[in-house]
Each structure stands twice: as C-alpha cells, then as structure tokens.
Amino acid sequence: MTHTRLPEWIRRETRASRGGRHTLRLLRKGVVHTVCEEAHCPNRGKCFSQNRATFLILGPRCTRACGFCAVEGGPPLPPDPEEPARVALTARELGLKYVVVTSVTRDDLADGGAAHFALTVQELKRRIQGCRVEVLVPDFRGKREGLERVLEAGPDVFGHNLETVERLYPVVRPGARYERSLTVLASVRQLSPTTRTKSGLMVGLGETIEEMTQAFRDLREAGCDLLTVGQYLRPSARNLPVSEYVQPDMFRQYRKSGERMGFSRVEAAPLVRSSMNAEEMSHV
Fold first, then answer.
1. I need a surface site. Which of 11, 175, 197, 233 has the fewest CB within 10 A?
2. Span 110-131, pLDDT tens digits
3. Contact 274/69 with Cβ under 8 angstroms?
C-alpha cells in the first residue's frame, strides 16, 4: 500500500523545523554542499537554526541511483582540490567543534573518493582546534585500502549506513550489496578497534519487524556501536513511495531492542537521520 498523506506526528515535527538563514549564508559564502539540502532532509531548518550542517563532499552528483535518495545522479565532475579547505573554513566560521562529513558515491574514482575524505578530515583537524570529525562514507566498492586511507586521517566516528533490510536491497539500493556494507563496518572494527562505528536504517519501505531485528543482529556481529532508525519520507515523485508510516511506539520498541542487543546508543524516531544529533550520540 502506498501512503501519500503525512501523519500528524510527522507534520507536527516538520512544522517546527524552520529557520537557519545565517547558516545558509555561511554555506553559500563557503561554496560548500550539504546533504541536508541535496537530500531534502526534513530536519534541515531545525539543524541550520542551531548552526549545524552535514557537509557533502565530492560534488552534488552521485554515480548510483538509489531508490530512496534525492541526490542528483549523472556524470560527476572531478574532485575539487580546494574543497577540503573550504569545508574546514566554513565549519570554523559556523563555530563547529564536531563536524559530520559525508559524500556522494563516486564509483568513477579508483579509490571511490577515499583520499578526498582523508584530506577533508585532516583539514578540519588542522584548522579547528580540538575538532572531532564523524565520517559517513560510501562502500568504496568494497576496497579495503579506501577504508585504510580514511582511517589514517583519524576520524572519531566512522559511519556507513546499511539503509534497509537485505530483501529490499535490489529495489532500494540496486548498486549496493547488503553483505558488502556489513563488511565495511566489520573491516573498520578490525583495522581500528578503538574507532566508533555507526550505521543507520530506514523504515517504511516494506520491511518486516523480523527483518529489522535480523539487520540489527547483523550490524552487531559486524561490530557496529551506534545505530539510528528513522522513517523514510519520499523526497520527490521519482523516488520510491512510502509503504507505511511507522507508529512512534514501534520506534521505541526498536530502540529498546537495539539497546538489548548491545549497541552503545540507539536513536529511533520518525525524523531521526544518521547525522542528526551526531555529537550527542558520540558521547557514550
């Protein structure tokens, strides 16, 4: 069944998520992209009003076409060598001490963009005293050397989103592989045991509770520490329809289930997103 009308508990929260003109001006001034805008995040007004933003590097075009994502597809431009410095300077002007950096998927690049990630982490730590950095990376096509390159830069939290349950991958993430994403997290745990790992899942795409529980187990087996669970909201008519708006009580059950399984922290609510309240989640 396809749902088109937002339930009241989501409409109420999205109405409160407005503001942030000052942050927008600084982002434009710095000539940087954010996943908040490119992915049409429903929380962007709320986060921008708190001078928070999640930087999107390696350009605004993705080489994959995931069914849930609003980020533009198409042939990407070469990585901008000045972008890491611009991100760091903009983050400093925003007054950020905890910075989240993600990217589009760049299957056109030999290293998937890993070196660019590493440079961005290094610039942030060089230009902002005491800065902590969380990265949310693509799968680098399963290449372990890409993970090693990013880890060498010293991110404080290493994120990679599983996004959905295994059965739905061919529709939701046709260019990705469930086991490959789990291997990314397991490899980070092996390469850098002290680095916190994080992942996120969406609900409302047709998954079952049993499938979500299995995904939780798989993430824990891969060594994942931090978990977010949020409602999928259709960002445009070209994206997958919403199968179900999950009731708030179910999110509370997911949080308790994750905590029982041993995640250090679980954030689960309709408008939770993988980088939402990232700094608070890291303090566990």
1. 11
2. 999 999 999 999 999 999 999 9
3. no
Strands 33-34 and 72-73: unpaired
Instruction: Give first-to-last CA distance, the chain, whole Å.
Output: 39
Strand-pairing partners, residue 230, are 202
Q: In a 3-state reduction of DSSP, which class is residue 234? A: coil
Contact 57, 101 (CB under 8 A): yes
Contact 136, 162 (CB under 8 A): no
- What pLDDT, in 10s, does the model give residues 142-172? 999 999 999 999 999 999 999 999 999 999 9
Three-state secondary-structure class, residue 194 = coil
Domains and CATH numbers, the chain: 8-276 (3.20.20.70)
| Per-residue pLDDT at 1 exceeds 80 | no
Q: What is the pLDDT of residue 14?
A: 65
- Are 184 and 225 spatial neighbours (Cβ–Cβ below 8 Å)? no
Burial class for 75, CB neighbours closer than 10 Å (0-12, 13-18, 19+): exposed
* Single pTM value for the model: 0.95
d(CA 249, CA 255): 10
Beta carbons of 187 and 195 less than 8 angstroms apart: no
